[in-house]
Design a protein that fits this description.
- The structure is a homodimer.
- The first copy, chain A, is an alpha/beta fold.
- The first copy, chain A, folds into two domains: about 5-275, Spore Coat Polysaccharide Biosynthesis Protein SpsA, Chain A (Alpha-Beta Complex); about 290-364, no CATH class.
- Helices cover about 35% and strands about 25% of the residues of chain A.
- Chain A has helices at about 5-10, 50-60, 75-80, 95-110, 130-145, 190-200, 210-220, 225-235, 240-245, 250-260, 280-290, 350-355, and strands at about 15-20, 65-70, 90, 115-120, 125, 150-155, 165-170, 180-185, 200-210, 265-270, 275, 295, 305-315, 320-330, 335-340.
- In chain A, helix 2 crosses helix 5 (about 130-145) and helix 7 (about 210-220) crosses helix 8 (about 225-235).
- The longest helix of chain A has 16 residues, at about 95-110.
- Chain A starts with a helix and ends in a 7-residue tail after the last helix.
- In chain A, about 55% of the residues are buried.
- The interface of A and B includes residues 28, 29, 323 and 351 of A.
- Strand 14 (about 320-330) of chain A pairs parallel with strand 15 of chain B.
- Chains A, B: Pfam families: ManC_GMP_beta-helix, NTP_transferase.
- Chains A, B: InterPro entries: GMPP_N, ManC/GMP-like_b-helix, Mannose-6P_isomerase_type2, NTP_transferase_dom, Nucleotide-diphossugar_trans.
- Chains A, B: Keywords: Nucleotidyltransferase, Transferase.
Chain lengths: ~375, ~375
């Protein structure tokens, strides 16, 4: 079967849910609270991260897309995604973490399409091989239809300490390349990460595929009020504003995935399709790096270097000259400039925190 | 006698000549061909370099100031120096090196004030102790009145390889702390510089004090046509445009000072008053450096750092964040940004040369 045939045959009720939240503080000054990571073209592809996310899912879901984002970003998301029905872009009145966002989408889909299977994929991740990604998701959707909460287990490329891991168990009979999940484990220390990789653990990229009712019933088993509130909002959308603020702030991993794994209800489909969550400028540089010493995100004509390597982002349209610095990171925007190194890319967060408290909080 | 008394008694006919030329390429992007170094406040004093140059000479010369600058910079100079008579700002039709600029000033003064003694001081040097500077210049003016070509010999603070040196000879009888010059020597290699410093050589800062006729007669001894042409322009200012392009391009040091020293006609007054020619951002950083690790030229509120040292110039008014870089140089202007290190500050020149040849030559 071709990819199109697979989509047509088994994905008629498959929905993409795209939680679009998080400021991406470690990508300041490109990413801001007012214009977070997912609204930017961080790969120089000509598409923003949320546009690329939708692009890679459209062959599976056609118009069946639901985006859940901050109310203040709703207009920008609608503008960036003309192919998504405006009613399919839900604005959260306030940030309430991923369980509320994904749970609300589940409750809406449960009402709208009784045969729905949903896959939740963050708006700000990068995937370099979308075709393999779609094949893996299609496999996950088949398992989800059987009632499993399915996660995608990314094949580690190195012993990362910035991601949680998935312990893979036995193959599930009757399902293609699908395994039981023994447990989810938190971000490990370096030595533990190395052991995980050796033992065949997978990265947890926070992708979940399931029937909406499965997600909500699993949640109901842990926190019945929470599940009831979400279903209530879906049934009476006019109550969203008032009911939202009462919802618990909790990640879907803790609220549902971890207890479900302990109960043997979670499956994992392994995948290897060039995934990155672009956590900071060092990982962005790794992602974009070409043969040469210096990577430019933007117009290379604006960048002049001598004995320099690293990442330069000339997004203010000004000329940027770098002389005699290795593994440097220079991010030039209209109102703020960052100069750091690959090694210290994580520490950008601290500068943003300091700016938030000072006279320049508007820049964060 | 007080400083004011000295000025009143012996400096009635003392004139300041200020050659204002040179792009200051190694201070790009602050300094540009269109807005060279001397037009900028590089010390954060609130005065540009040329303003500070005039400020420190006014107690000696009052309104007796002659500036020779590029025709394209004349308006900017006039605007920056409201206290200088507009007729005292001469625009060179094209760059013709320092002999033409200083020689033209000498020819103009020879006509205007037969008792004149002139001192020539570059527009883009920094002096941290102007009072001592004036005492030294006053001594030089006294020797100049006696017919000497007098230079100021700066006490070296380190064995610099970027300056020429002056070999100091015997004291001149009847003149206060004034010595014969044995010879001028070119910029030395490091080991030679160390020997010079040990042997009591002085830095040649290009400051010359003399009667205008002495300078022109010395020039006439080497190149009679050149001296005649300068005197001709002074007598018929309307010929400037046409005559200027025929003048030789030569530095005053080679045209006059070196041959005069060989002939025993040059005196030196030693001085120690915190002099710097701000050759690049490393020397600017040294000049401005305070106790802390990071020097800011501009509004410190705009700069946020974490584990950083060096120089930041936030002259575009944007926030500049620097994380994890030692001895870095970050110069942020409205249309161009430079990121380099103290160590590589000299190499900025190469980047500017490359820009000159490309699409962004307008930025140089």
């Amino acid at each position: 079967m071709t990819e199109a045939d697979v989509a047509a045959s088994s994905l008629d009720h498959f929905w993409a849910v795209i939680p679009a939240g998080g400021a991406g503080t470690r990508l300041w000054p490109l990413s801001r609270a007012a214009a977070p990571k997912f609204l930017h073209d961080l790969t120089g592809s000509g598409r923003t991260l949320i546009q690329a996310t939708v692009d890679r899912l459209v062959p599976l879901v056609a118009e069946r897309v639901l985006v859940v984002t901050g109310a203040s970003h709703r207009d920008a998301v609608v503008a960036q995604l003309p192919e998504v029905d405006e009613a399919g872009v839900v604005g959260e009145p306030s940030p309430r973490d991923s369980m509320a966002a994904i749970g609300l989408a589940a409750a809406m889909l449960e009402l709208r399409d009784p045969d729905a299977v949903m896959g939740s994929f963050a708006a700000d991740h990068v995937i370099t091989d979308p075709q393999t990604f779609r094949a893996v998701v299609t496999r996950a959707a088949a398992a989800a239809r059987e009632g499993w909460l399915v996660t995608i287990g990314i094949e580690p490329t190195h012993p990362a300490t910035g991601f949680g891991y998935i312990a893979v168990g036995d193959p599930l009979p009757g399902l293609d390349e699908t395994f039981a999940v023994r447990e989810f484990v938190e971000k490990p220390a370096a030595d533990v990460a190395a052991r995980y990789v050796e033992d065949g653990y997978r990265w947890n990229a926070g992708m979940f595929v399931a029937r909406p009712g499965v997600i909500l019933d699993l949640l109901a088993g842990e926190d019945p009020d929470f599940a009831r509130a979400l279903r209530g909002i879906a049934a009476a959308p006019e109550t969203l504003e008032e009911a939202w603020s009462t919802l618990p702030r909790i990640a879907v991993d803790h609220a549902v995935a971890e207890p479900a794994a302990a109960a043997g209800r979670v499956a994992v489909v392994p995948g290897s399709f060039g995934w990155d969550d672009i956590g900071d400028f060092a990982s962005l540089e790794t992602l974009l790096r070409s043969a040469g010493g210096l990577t430019v995100l933007g117009d290379p004509e604006l960048v002049r270097t001598l004995d320099a390597s690293g990442l330069v982002v000339p997004s203010a349209g000004r000329v940027v000259a770098v002389v005699g610095l290795e593994d440097v990171v220079v991010v030039d925007t209209g109102d703020a400039l960052l100069v750091t190194t690959r090694e210290r890319a994580q520490d950008v967060k601290a500068v943003v925190a300091a700016l938030k408290e000072g006279a320049h909080h508007g820049l964060t």
